[in-house]
Amino acid sequence: MPPRKLQVAIAGLGRMGARHAMHFLTRTPRAQLVAACTPDESELAWARIHLEPNGVTLYKEYDEMIKQTGLEAVVIASVTTVHAEQAIKGMKAGLHVLCEKPLSTSVEVVSGLPFSVVLSSGSWWANVDAGQSQSVVDAAKKRPDLKVMCGFSRRFDASYRDAYEKMDSGSIGRPSVFRSQTCDKLDPSGFFVQYAQFSGGIFVDCNIHDIDLALWFFGQDSVVKSVAAIGITAVQPELRKYGDVDNGIGMVEFWGGKMAYFYCSRMMAAGQHDMTEIIGTEGKLTVNANPLGTLVDMYEDNGIRREIPQHYYGRFEQAFVTEANEFTAACLDNTKLPFKLTGAVQAVKIGCALQESLNSGKKIFFDETGRRIERAGL
Predict the structure, then answer these.
(1) Predicted structure pTM score
(2) What is the C-alpha end-to-end distance of the chain, expressed in Å?
(3) Using CA atoms, how far apart are residues 80 and 197, in angstroms rounded to an integer?
(4) Which of 320, 66, 336, 354 is nearest to 204 (CA)?
(5) Beta strands 175-185 and 273-280, pairing class
(6) Could you report the per-residue pLDDT of 134-186, keeping only the tens digit for each?
(7) Pairing of strands 73-76, 6-11
(8) What residues are paired with 73 via a beta bridge?
């Protein structure tokens, strides 16, 4: 009798959804992709060529797809604004959930909630329904039988795992400063301008990976003391109408004597450059400080050069495949997921606070319990 395979569906077949679909279809031996959905006709046309001939049933409606008999898990890679809604619906249907980052573009806004991010009615994201990220966590708590994970792909990257193990072994002393960046190659098509309408902003969308890494390396229970952010629109001024920028710098101070510096950019000329530096009291670690596409160096009359990955997937392809396989194994074997879902909410909270600071021009402070406090201006 052949071993049982996890029956998986994909929601959304855009840039990452199509890649997730192919990972589960061809590179995750213990999973079987059985369904996929998208309302987009061009994405459906792609799926009819690449998925349907392999026995994948296609849908236009998510609600119809999750009713498919025998379905066990859903991977959510649709537009960010529906991540939380679809994740909760998946859990209600009894499905394991792997949701692309972030869980949503907003956090619970409740009086007295620790680390609450108070969004003014005039803010550009004020039309986003609050409470989505926390609602996913609350729904997951009601279904302890299900595996629910947010797709922070860098946690599955071999280099980041190696760096964490070295830090955890004490090789650099006490980690105190964390510097990380996500820098995309310039896309002159205007994609990121249109994407800014629902991405949550560059800190929520782009730096969310770096924020999650800081929480991983510093400890998930780290409490934020203050955040401040600045940014510019160097090449895509149209972003301003959505309250966003193409280059941003965020500073996060944690209680206990730690701090993080985040840089995000949409205008790299050479290609994708995502790197991290962890500085400790006895040394430091760097990940991808000098990016490599391959091990080829080109010796030319004007010098020596090398090519770097042209996009995020070029750098983290294997991490996504590892993510798919480890999620599948956790579902089939009922083993623990590699990190807690609550960390995804904390990352969104920090990202939203940085985005608010960017647009307000004000530094935001929190007390030792994580509650926001007001400080009089000098």
Answers:
(1) 0.90
(2) 73
(3) 11
(4) 354
(5) antiparallel
(6) 899 999 999 999 999 999 999 999 999 999 999 999 999 999 999 999 999 99
(7) parallel
(8) 8, 96
